[in-house]
Write a structure and sequence with these properties.
The chain is 4% helix and 37% strand. It has 186 residues and is mainly beta. The strands form 3 sheets. A 5-stranded antiparallel β-sheet has the order 1-3-4-5-9. The protein has a 4-stranded mixed β-sheet with strand order 2-11-10-7, with no helix packed on it. Strands 6-8 form a two-stranded antiparallel sheet. The longest helix is centred in the N-terminal third of the chain and has 4 residues. The N terminus is likely disordered.
Length: 186
């Protein structure tokens, strides 16, 4: 299954990478080892890899080949909603993450970017107990603007994730069950 077949990667983009990530072919070896390549990713006290806007994150197969690569291109607190069904946030604030990415044809199972994958920790360190995927968050933007909830093999995607959070500052966590997760300050 996906959890057993994949492991987190702590990739960070080189200055030459564009905003949309590209997944290198599995058989392409690095031409020259870099001292940065051996560096362990920085993790939080929660065990998540700490990321900044523009950093690449993704999943690798057990053999080390990349099978999914994504980038959070922007994080916006209290963005304007675009849907005709938009309502005020249930918990206080909306946070929008603009995400792009792609998967390889060798992705062993679909990826889920659904409600149970996202968590928020307030700037005082308290984990939010509510559902960041509230009905208000779901209705904030038109479906065509959203990142798909399910991403399959060989797909390239771009879209937004809207979370309903209690504070205008904190940490957003995306977890991959059994593999850990990533987090971004907002």
């Amino acid at each position: 299954d996906l959890i057993a077949a994949l492991a987190l990667t702590g990739c960070t983009p080189s200055p030459s990478e564009s905003a949309a990530p590209t997944v290198p072919p599995a058989a392409t070896p690095s031409s020259s080892p870099s001292s940065d390549a051996a560096a362990e990713p920085t993790t939080s006290d929660r065990g998540n890899v700490i990321k900044a806007v523009g950093d690449t994150f993704g999943l690798s197969a057990k053999d080390g080949s990349s099978v999914a690569s994504f980038v959070v291109n922007a994080i916006t607190v209290d963005p304007g909603c675009t849907s005709e069904y938009a309502e005020a946030p249930e918990h206080g604030h909306f946070v929008r993450l603009d995400v792009s990415g792609e998967t390889t044809a060798t992705l062993p199972d679909d990826l889920y970017f659904a409600s149970g994958s996202w968590f928020v920790v307030a700037d005082n360190g308290t984990t939010f107990n509510g559902d960041v995927w509230s009905m208000a968050a779901a209705g904030c933007m038109d479906q065509t603007e959203r990142l798909p909830n399910i991403i399959g093999a060989g797909e390239r995607v771009t879209g937004a994730v809207i979370l309903d959070v209690p504070t205008p500052h904190g940490v957003i966590i995306l977890q991959s069950p059994g593999s850990g997760g990533w987090e971004w300050e907002y």
